[in-house]
Task: structure prediction
Amino acid sequence: MSTTQSTITGFHAHIYFEQSSTEAARTLCEQAAERFGVAMGQLHTRPVGPHPMPSCQLDCSPQKFGELLPWLLENRGDLIVFCHAQSGDHLTDHTRNIFWLGEVQSLNLEMFG
Result:
């Protein structure tokens, strides 16, 4: 068992949606922010950064993420959720330190050079 300090300082959960599910995504993110005290980002109505779909980001600590994740599993409905760690290594955080709730999507990783 490793005794080194984790380099993971937080997690992002990106809620992906289509035009027809915009309000479901907004509601899910607002409820998560209120219930868990996590930061809710802007609701992007087009793909932004590496994300292939419109999305909204939830930003939380590792401790809060442990509470948020089961709730997202139970409440996401048909929405896709992309989760990744925040360690400062953006490429690793978007390729190795990830998991998906729902259908896996292809990210645009070119921006991480």
